[in-house]
C-alpha cells in the first residue's frame, strides 16, 4: 500500500484525518508517539507504527481494497463467528462499513472508536440486533477492544477473533511462547494435539490453542525485538502462517510474503459467548514491543 496515494478528505484534529484510498475511507493517525491507519471498511486496523519502531502490523503488499472482501493483513474483525462456522467465512463484520463514533488525543496518544449496528444486510445473514463498538488506543502500545452488545429481545451467541497479522523479519527465525500446549490442528480437520511450550515454523501452521496463557510472546530474533500479545475476553488463541503453497494460491498475497507475517489471534472459539438482551462482552488484544 502506497501511503502517498491516500487523498485527504477531512482533517478532524491535529492527529486524526479522514482519507480515502481506492474508494475505502481510512482514518489516518499521525501523532508524535504513533502512526496508524484504520479502515472504516471492516473496522480494520491496517498499520500501527509506534515512534522509533519498525511497523508492528503486517499488511500484504498485494492487499485488495474491494468493498466486498476483507483486506489481507492488519487486524480483520472476525464476527459473529470464527472461520467457516457459517457463511461468509469469518462473519460479516470484516466486510461491513463501520462508522467513526469517537476520537480523542493528548500528548500521550490517540483513541479512535468505530461502531457497527445491525442493518437489513446483516439481518439477512444473521437475524439478530446488535451494537458493536471497536476502540483503538494507540501510543507506544496498541490496545484493541471490541464490545458487543445484544440490543435484541432474545438471547444470541457469538464467536470471532481479532485476527492480527504481525510483521516479522523472517518466519524461519521466530519463536512463540505462551500459547499453551493443547491445540486443534486445522490442517488436520481440527484434530486434538499436544505441542511443546515453544512454537517454531517450518510448514503451514493453522492451530486453535485452547489453553493460552495471559500473554503470548513472539520472539523476533532478526528484528531484535519481542512482540507481546495480551488477550482478554477470549477462550482460544489461533496461530496461523499459510506457508508458500497457500500464499501462492491467494491472489492478495505475494508468493513469498508468508515469510514476513504470522497471525496470533485473540479468539472466541468454542464455547461461543451467549448474551442476554442488554448484555455486553468485550474481546480485546494489547500489543507491545520489548527490546
Ligand atoms: O485464522 C486462521 C484462518 O482461519 C485460516 O484457516 C486461514 O484461512 C485464515 O484464517 C485466513 O482466512 P481468510 O478468510 O481471511 O482467507
Automatic annotation (TrEMBL):
Q: Which Pfam families match?
A: Aldose_epim
For this UniProt record, give its keywords in alphabetical order, as a comma-separated list.
Isomerase
Entry EC no(s): 5.1.3.15
Kindly state which reaction or reactions the protein catalyses.
alpha-D-glucose 6-phosphate = beta-D-glucose 6-phosphate
- Xref: InterPro entries: Aldose_1/G6P_1-epimerase (IPR008183), G6P_1-epimerase (IPR025532), Gal_mutarotase_sf_dom (IPR011013), GH-type_carb-bd (IPR014718)
Coiled-coil positions: none
Q: Which family does it belong to?
A: Belongs to the glucose-6-phosphate 1-epimerase family.
Q: What protein is this chain from? A: Putative glucose-6-phosphate 1-epimerase
**What organism is recorded for this protein?**
Photobacterium toruni
